[in-house]
Design a protein that fits this description.
- By secondary structure, the protein is α/β, with parallel strands linked by helices.
- The chain is built from 6 helices and 5 strands.
- Strand 1, helix 1 and strand 2 form a beta-alpha-beta unit.
- It is globular.
- The protein starts with a strand and ends with a helix.
- It holds the Pfam family LacAB_rpiB.
- Belongs to the LacAB/RpiB family.
- Keywords: Isomerase.
Length: 143
Amino acid sequence: MIKIAIACDHAGFEYKEYLKKQLSEKYEIQDFGTHSSDSVDYPDFVHPAANSVESGENTFGILICGSGQGVQLSANKHKNIRCALCWMPELAALSRQHNNANMLAMPARFIAKELALEIAETFINTNFEGGRHERRVEKISAC
């Protein structure tokens, strides 16, 4: 079964709860917080979620904040995380096909919840193409 880590800051809380409810019908979801719309520091929730994807405890991670940038930047500090900021399904598909992204970041302030669900489903259900993309992905965490 596909296991998904999900985390957010206060701006992404409503979206996290919506995605968690929708996605839990098909996937196992591990919620790393936050658990309210009170102001928080997103790295406190992103790093544990990223650790769980890095360790293999979870297959993928979904992160949500206002712009998507903060959570994406935090996750990508982890050597074996490839977190893609996506605001449309086509970007989610390409991030999986070409970059073998294992975490998805989304901007709650710029997309509708229904679109966030479509993006998440596309991300989860798109396979890495490998081939010529494999050597490029291997070079991402080379330093």
